[in-house]
Design goal:
The protein is 40% helix and 13% strand. α4 links the parallel β3 and β4. It starts with 12 loop residues before the first strand and ends with a helix. The radius of gyration is 22 Å and the shape is globular. It contains 13 helices and 13 strands.
Length: 408
């Protein structure tokens, strides 16, 4: 057979909803040599990762760690470990990823209740409160920022609701952590899971997660050590967590001082996740979020400067991504193809009712910077002109410059 050559991806500027261009320091960290999973260097690095992500999540939770999977695997780990068959869960749905939480919870055997908002809006607190009164759930499972619509769900008042109904609060912060405020402890969030490939500035494949003492108590009550590593006195239960790989009780043991074997830690991904968090905390969490806000506002102004309409409720837009309505008569996929082919820039489309209706343009992680924003706007203007769209000459770049000038 003819062997393929060495991997040599083309130069790309990933300005879509994720994955994004990984920070060069993260890629450099991921080129470091492997060590054994119980090597003192490795266990020390695991401890450093836990400390670093406590800073990123703004939490004191002991059980802050990585789930070796993409962000979706961490969502599933949280839900399958918190929910037993027959448990009630309430999921506010405002886009594709609310529907994902519903599906995962149903596969856990939970009794799932929903409260919906039209795509492009968020679910009002009053609607959530009414649904909580009806459902009396064990878990309120929320998407903080849904990239399918670019909306960010407010968390104000959710802890008080959960306290009223003795309910756990879970948040999917895949799209928002790092680039948008998410003070885990101040908001009273019991479980939160993320991924590296958006605001954290790394590749997909490792999922930071944190769990409050309330959540840990529920998970530990289902702890059941598998036979091959069980020692005298280790617990077994008749109805354990319905996944072995995603069993958080066993993953907690693996990350604890006991280091009870569960799987082989994804060493290279841990190196990358560690560097993602180091970069954020070195810049300062507040400053990192402010940078995302600035470049997100510049991109928003830029697309409007081109005469394009922004989709959704602007008051609840995520800082790190904007949805742009595709003008009538414009082939959205042709525009995306030209941007990629001619300029090496990738932007996204969306799903479901928004497929073919919007472009999604991200400014996150390493790409939340001036040159990436200006290059994307200039390229988009050029491609739209080729499509016959009468955009104002320089309108996007000039509007973005105005934002930067006002912030200087």
């Amino acid at each position: 057979m003819s062997l393929p050559g060495p991997i040599d991806p083309p130069a790309r500027l990933l300005m879509g909803p994720g994955p994004i261009t990984a920070h060069p320091r993260v890629l450099q960290a991921m080129s470091a040599q492997l060590v054994g999973q119980y090597d003192p260097f490795m266990t020390g690095a695991m401890g450093e990762v836990q400390d670093l992500y406590r800073g990123v999540f703004a939490t004191a939770n002991t059980h802050t760690l990585l789930v070796d999977s993409t962000a979706r695997g961490a969502i599933e780990a949280a839900l399958v470990s918190l929910l037993e068959p027959g448990d009630r869960v309430l999921v506010p749905v405002m886009g594709r990823f609310g529907h994902l939480l519903v599906e995962i919870a149903e596969r856990c055997g939970a009794e799932v209740h929903t409260v919906d908002a039209p795509w492009g809006e968020v679910v009002p607190l009053e609607a959530i409160a009414a649904a909580m009164e009806r459902a009396r759930p064990k878990v309120l499972a929320m998407v903080h920022g849904d990239t399918s619509t670019t909306m960010r769900q407010p968390f104000d008042g959710l802890r008080e609701l959960c306290d009223r109904y003795d309910c756990l609060l879970y948040a999917d912060v895949t799209a928002t952590l790092g680039g948008n405020p998410f003070p885990t402890d101040a908001w009273g969030v019991d479980a939160a899971t993320a991924g590296l490939q958006k605001c954290l500035g790394g590749p997909s494949g490792s999922a930071p997660a944190t769990f409050s003492p309330r959540a840990v108590e529920v998970i530990e009550a289902r702890r059941s050590i598998e036979a091959g590593i069980r020692e005298p006195g280790d617990p077994t239960v008749a109805h354990p967590i319905r996944s072995n790989y995603l069993d958080l009780a066993m993953i907690f043991d693996y990350w604890s001082p006991r280091r009870l074997n569960h799987h082989t830690e994804a060493t290279t991904m841990l190196y990358g996740a560690r560097e993602c968090a180091r970069i954020i905390l070195e810049e300062g969490l507040d400053a990192y979020q402010a940078r995302h806000d600035l470049h997100g506002r510049a991109m928003l102004a830029g697309v409007e400067g081109l005469g394009l309409a922004v989709y959704g409720d602007r008051a609840h837009r995520m800082a790190n991504i904007v949805a742009v309505e595709i003008p009538d008569g414009v082939d959205g996929e042709a525009v995306r193809g030209s941007l990629l082919r001619d300029f090496g820039i990738e932007i996204g489309t969306s799903f479901g009712p928004l497929a073919g209706r919007v472009w999604r343009i991200g400014t996150m992680g390493w790409n939340a910077r001036t040159d990436a924003v200006l290059a994307t706007l200039a390229a988009l203007e050029a491609v739209l002109r080729r499509q016959g769209v009468p955009v104002p000459p320089g309108g996007g770049v000039d509007a973005a410059y105005d934002v930067y000038g006002a912030a200087a």
